[in-house]
Amino acid sequence: MAIKSLINGMSSEAISLFDRGLQYGDGLFETIAVEKESLLCWDEHIERLQSGCRRLKLQIPNQDTLAEEAKRLTNSVERGIIKIIITRGQGGRGYALPVNIDSTRIISLYPWPEYSFGNPSDGIKVHVCNYRYAHNSILAGIKHLNRLEQVLARSEWADSSIAEGVVLDHEENVIEGTMSNVFYIKDEVLNTPELSDCGVEGIIRQKVITLAAELNLEICINKVSLKSLMNADEVFMCNSIIGVWPIKIIDEKPFKVGNKTIQIKKALQKQNCIATL
Amino acid sequence: MAIKSLINGMSSEAISLFDRGLQYGDGLFETIAVEKESLLCWDEHIERLQSGCRRLKLQIPNQDTLAEEAKRLTNSVERGIIKIIITRGQGGRGYALPVNIDSTRIISLYPWPEYSFGNPSDGIKVHVCNYRYAHNSILAGIKHLNRLEQVLARSEWADSSIAEGVVLDHEENVIEGTMSNVFYIKDEVLNTPELSDCGVEGIIRQKVITLAAELNLEICINKVSLKSLMNADEVFMCNSIIGVWPIKIIDEKPFKVGNKTIQIKKALQKQNCIATL
């Protein structure tokens, strides 16, 4: 549970039953790493949040207000997570967008997660999910509140040594993890799935793509088969909280924690994109 | 807004921020018509709710408790709506299913809706949505809380003379409305889209299908093209609250309010499946 939460600027942990976030999953969210009071990639998160609001026709929250409220929560925080949820607000029964509705702004500070599977820097164990993501080009890329697909994919394993799952779409393309994006390196080329049909356009995913040029890695954003992933030289998963997690096992297949993955992780840390602690 | 709500049996209108219903849309719902204190098609709603819980791996609420709480709210209610929401419950940050979590049970009484477009019995005006439903066979049929697709489809019109929208899937098959199922009659055959890839398996839809035999109508549940719908003799939409709404206009095309539609509506009323007031 969160350490502290602000709902529309007021300290609270309760929300109206009639908020459309609960009734319909009508909203979106951002999850941001906090290190030494600093909110990592804040501008990029706010930009994605605003773009998501535009796509879902949500009222865009004032960004200065968001920044001020996030700062209130992260004051003297060494390490933590800020989760921002924006919902369409409180509305009547029915899907129709209420007129003049104010979006609901929820900002919560969570403790930094503790992992049960050892030090992720040594490489993580990954399960290939049976669940298949649906194609939905209108919602693809948005970090919206309709997350039943992720919940169902994540429900496939209880083995605490498994850190993450790889999820394919119904055409058998690798898309991403349940909570992270996936990259692999093969013959000096950095590959990641294209996400026009489903998936979340991760902030760290974009940072890694931008970084490729600086590291003299060719980047390929395309459809990815499970076979290509399994034949990779190096594989890693990334998001704003985990940073970069090298993969050491996918189902039974072992991978080495490669130099390029380590290089990418260090470069992201140097640019203050991911946590260093 | 609701007249009265019970959360896990306690009168309340506030829910924890950490409920997975809000965080992930991790739950489902039922919407039930109330007439003269009676909850129409109660058994069928509870059966679908339980089946949805099993499919989403949610803890199934005790049905006697649900019945007792619904009765508390509908005591001396002439006409209204009971909405039941079941969420996975309060859980930590992350998609993983918490161990030993208790599902959250929300039951609300809403007033009977007033419509802006005149008497629906005279036939309604319907918009063909540009939004296309995504295929997701795992979630298809379930009345789950991930309703952004319906919100976006419904957001396409603000004209209060339009009562409902018809939504197709990305393969251009007619699926249903934004909040109702759709049927059409052509040459004595009653047709409705099959819903294995998307859509909600409505309680009234099932009642209409069962009724067809009694009314000597051949029933055809199959893929439906917009062209077939537009060439129908009669078209209607149905759900637990609206009952049966004959369609008089789809986009510009006029339809007559046909005898078979009226016959079906009367038969459903006689069987106490839909409201008569």
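Chain A touches chain B through 60 residues (CB under 8 Å).
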